[in-house]
Amino acid sequence: MSTASAATGFSFDHLRQRHAGLWQAYIEHEFVCRLGKASLPEASFRHYLQQDYRFLIHFARAWGLAVYKSPDLFELRRAFDALKAIVDTELELHVGFCRQWGISEQALAELEEARETLAYTRFVLDCGHRGDLLDLHVALAPCLIGYGEIANRLLARSTTVLEGNPYREWIEMYAGEDFQSAMHDELAWLDRALAGVSRERFEQLAALFRDATRLEIDFWQMGLNAA
Ligand SMILES: Cc1ncc(CO)c(N)n1
């Protein structure tokens, strides 16, 4: 585990650079690009939205696990706030969003979980069960940081269509203040925690980051395949 003497000053950027190709494949996935250009088939988005409801429930559970794994009051509050934000804000927004797309809460509750959703969410929970709070945060990093980055990049690029884009609200939700500030808090948390880890520990964490990123790619691909 980490020792001050072996500290090498790692940060989240080192994780991203360690798996730069995969990270690129995730944040520039065809699903995302077509969403930005309003050319994503609606069936793809609908399938994604439904599975993402399931994802968010397990995501909330993962933050519940972070509550349990918190060694002090500071961490406990932080994980508790994240859990509350997902349950009260992100899931509420998501259910409302699904309603606009003609998907009722009843239909969401009865939904069969796709393999991609199963694989990703249980992987994150397993990282948390086996490891410590840092393992769990690293497994969760592609979710929080990836989506924030994806939305920012979409908004920054000239080929993105906003006018009349049925996916505009989705982009604006993740580019919005609430999500962006959660992303920045998480980046700061990771940078602080990673600064003290040894190279060996970094490599262990980078392997979790790699697998979580691969599973995010599969999640997008699942959406594309539904059309
Ligand atoms: C699959 C997935 N990853 C990340 C997020 C961001 O919360 C989400 N809603 N869904």
UniProtKB/TrEMBL annotation:
Keywords in UniProt for this one? Answer: Hydrolase, Thiamine biosynthesis
Its family?
A: Belongs to the TenA family.
Q: What is the lineage of its organism?
A: Bacteria, Pseudomonadati, Pseudomonadota, Gammaproteobacteria, Oceanospirillales
- What metabolic or biological pathway is this protein involved in? Cofactor biosynthesis; thiamine diphosphate biosynthesis
Listed name of the protein:
Aminopyrimidine aminohydrolase
Q: Name one GO molecular function term.
A: thiaminase activity
Q: Which residues belong to any copy of the Thiaminase-2/PQQC domain?
A: 17-225
Provide the catalytic activity annotation: thiamine + H2O = 5-(2-hydroxyethyl)-4-methylthiazole + 4-amino-5-hydroxymethyl-2-methylpyrimidine + H(+); 4-amino-5-aminomethyl-2-methylpyrimidine + H2O = 4-amino-5-hydroxymethyl-2-methylpyrimidine + NH4(+)
GO cellular component terms, A-Z: cytosol
Q: Name one GO biological process term.
A: thiamine diphosphate biosynthetic process
In its UniProt entry, the species of origin is given as Kushneria sinocarnis
